[in-house]
Predict the structure.
Amino acid sequence: MKKAVMWLFLVFALLTFAAVRVLTATMTSENIQYLPVTVANYDATVGVSLLSNTIIDPAARGVITYDTFVNAASYQQDGVMSYAGYQYLAWYHDDLHARIARRALPSGAWEIVELDYQLIADDSHNSISLGISPVDGRIHIAYATHSASVRSTRSAPGVATNPAAYSWTSDLFEPTLTDFPGATITPNFTYPRFERLGDLLLMTWRNGGSGSGEIEMLVYNDDGTWSNRGAFTSKSGVFSANGGVSDSRNAYLNGVTADAFGRLHISWVWREYDRSVACAENAVTNHDLGYAYSDDGGMTWQNSAGAIIGRTGTGDMIGLGDEHLVAEISINAALINQETQRIDSEGRFHTVVSYVPEPYWDDGCVSDFTAGRVAHAMPVHFWRDIDGVWHSKQIPFLQGDVGRAKVVFDSQDNVYVVLPDLRIVAASAAMQWQDWRLVYDAAAISIDGEVIIDSQRAAAVNILSVIYQEANDGVSASALWIADFQLGTLR
């Protein structure tokens, strides 16, 4: 279905209602409203131009699991990132060894070193995430291990803050660690995410398994150690659907994102453990879209209306029963987990999630998650305005794949969504992100799986770096690429 232009589908879709109910900041059922998809005029000056498209590794690990490669999985935060004038990228070569590369921006030559860690299993959940601690200038690397023991490493101090002073060699990095120094993590380590909040570096991960886990947090200390803060999402509560009952779940985060004003934002969907709530054997038990923010570095969490709904490291975690919903999205709609979120320059929160609109369900259900999403999934843009009111817009393009999209902004707060097949669609801030159009069709690019992006570079200089892996037979090595796009107005 990739790159298929299903115009009849789109015309019909534009006349339907999104299968979602959007709540305002007051979070009461009286404010639920159904938002129709409408056709708007668009600002034709907003677009992208391809600057370069370069192979990083001609033989990257190419086994596809869970519909994507381990080197480009949406839940990486971050697999590619920029800091202090350099860009960093980590991935697995075909021989299973982890590699990390850097280049001086905007277009320096890539320097590549091999690390001492090897991929533990061909599982795309075992992706690599990067972080940087401003207090000591270290580069941190977390190797996700899909509910297994921790594996990590870090550079010597100063390597990130003064990169030109260091020759890029493997000796800069410590031997693989089985912990985060100073912290305690049980051997159920999945989805590590680093995020900088000012000079503070945080790390979150899921403790537990699919449908039965909690999101926990570490904070990096000035002395080079980590401290546990504890969990902030709960797996408890009772959920009923399709005649079944589930009493365990996990929150799948779309991201952990700090804004320029010192606020930390999260959004998520729930995944239920008990499959009796699923509408079919091949359905997935994801449902609903939640949101919370923290103004104290992730210790206390508030909902969109400002009410406290969770305290990290206590028994009062964010749970199913708290008032947290942005939108009620049916468990029957093939909603994907861990998609994308960003903050614009005014501190407005944006997330894009994708699912199958109700007219394309089979007898009240998307009975086959993969097939249904490939054929009919569409992305929906949700944003919270400065008054705390939520808005939504169904983006009038097929997702094009089972996988996830990425969202990013230029300096004018125009929004760009990179779809899984590397088509890019955009909408302008001037028209309140209503004027969606295709700005890059990716017709000449061979891609499989998902994409990851350098959100720091895009925010700083209006250049979007996209990492993708070349399509293959699902087993053999294939090329890992980086495509750079200029974002902004086309005059």
